[in-house]
């Protein structure tokens, strides 16, 4: 089954404790992206990647890092999480910019 | 960068009625416009998309129209059903401009039985 898999689904952590949210897709897509979703703010793009070793900032990149060492994986790293990063995070992939995204199931992160 | 505005933010209709959601975009070079449906607690799912070389696209009860001159596009749902209740997002991107896909703020559609 074609899908985007992200883990974990739920995560509660403390301020400053480094964490990684994993994302993997099995569709051989070139493009991958991370979004955060907050009430009243819709979906905002954090980082995106157009190929292995090619990443770029989206609209809200501060406090996040990503890497794209393999085509299928695109982890999101929070080096020092803060409470304002409490949000619902979605990983997504697509064939190229002329196609829509397939989203993962989401990761609900709470930073206390 | 691209800016996408979506209206209304909430929409309540009676079952069987039609629903229309409108979006405007700022970048005249944008040429790909997808629509997503997000049910409560679920991921956004692509329901229909349109590219700038066509003005309208239909898929059963759902249609999307695009007016490039005015830089706006709309989602039309006919014969609404309770299972159409969800949040709908429009988005816009430009081929060749990287992987940016900018979303509108979303419309919560409620279909009353």
Count of strand segments of chain A: 11
Distance between the first and last residues' Cα of chain B: 41 Å
Radius of gyration of chain A: 13 Å
Low-confidence stretches of chain B: none
Number of helices of chain B: 0
Distance between the termini of chain A: 36 Å
What's the story with the biggest beta sheet of chain B?
6 strands, mixed
Helix content of chain A: under 10%
Given helix and strand content, the structural type of chain A is mainly beta
Determine the strand fraction of chain B and express it as a percent band.
over 45%
Q: Describe the oligomeric state of these chains in a short phrase.
A: heterodimer
The chain-level structural class of chain B is: mainly beta
Rg over alpha carbons of chain B: 14 Å
Contiguous low-pLDDT stretches of chain A (5 residues minimum) are none
Q: SSE order of chain B in H/E notation? A: EEEEEEEEEEE
Query: What is the 3D shape of chain A?
Result: globular
Residues in β-strands, percent of chain A: over 45%
Mean pLDDT of chain B: 94
Total helical elements of chain A? 0
Write the layout of secondary structure elements.
The complex is a heterodimer of chains A (112) and B (113).
Chain A: E1 4-7, E2 10-13, E3 19-25, E4 31-38, E5 42-51, E6 54-57, E7 65-66, E8 76-78, E9 87-94, E10 102-103, E11 107-111
Parallel strand pairs in A: 2-11
Antiparallel strand pairs in A: 1-3, 3-8, 4-5, 4-9, 5-6, 7-8, 9-10, 9-11
Chain B: E1 4-7, E2 10-14, E3 19-25, E4 32-38, E5 45-51, E6 56-59, E7 62-67, E8 72-77, E9 86-92, E10 102-103, E11 107-112
Parallel strand pairs in B: 2-11
Antiparallel strand pairs in B: 1-3, 3-8, 4-5, 4-9, 6-7, 7-8, 9-10, 9-11
């Amino acid at each position: 089954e074609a899908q985007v898999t992200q883990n974990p689904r739920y995560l509660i952590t403390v301020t400053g404790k480094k964490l990684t949210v994993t994302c993997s897709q099995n569709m051989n897509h070139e493009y991958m992206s991370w979004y955060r979703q907050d009430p009243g703010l819709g979906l905002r793009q954090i980082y995106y990647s157009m190929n292995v070793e090619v990443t770029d900032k989206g609209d809200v990149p501060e406090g996040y890092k990503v890497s794209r060492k393999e085509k299928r994986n695109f982890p999101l790293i929070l080096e020092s999480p803060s409470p304002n990063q409490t949000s619902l995070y979605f990983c997504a992939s697509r064939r190229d910019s002329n196609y829509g995204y397939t989203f993962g199931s989401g990761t609900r992160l709470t930073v206390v | 960068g691209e800016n996408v505005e979506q209206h209304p933010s909430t929409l309540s209709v009676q079952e069987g009625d039609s629903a229309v959601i409108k979006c405007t975009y700022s970048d005249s070079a944008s040429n790909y416009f997808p629509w997503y449906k997000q049910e409560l607690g679920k991921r956004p799912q692509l329901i229909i998309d349109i590219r700038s070389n066509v003005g309208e696209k239909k898929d059963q009860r759902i249609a999307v129209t695009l007016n490039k001159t005015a830089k706006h596009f709309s989602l039309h749902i006919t014969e609404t059903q309770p299972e159409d209740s969800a949040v709908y997002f429009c988005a816009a991107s430009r081929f060749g401009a990287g992987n940016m896909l900018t979303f509108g703020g979303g419309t919560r559609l409620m279909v009353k039985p």
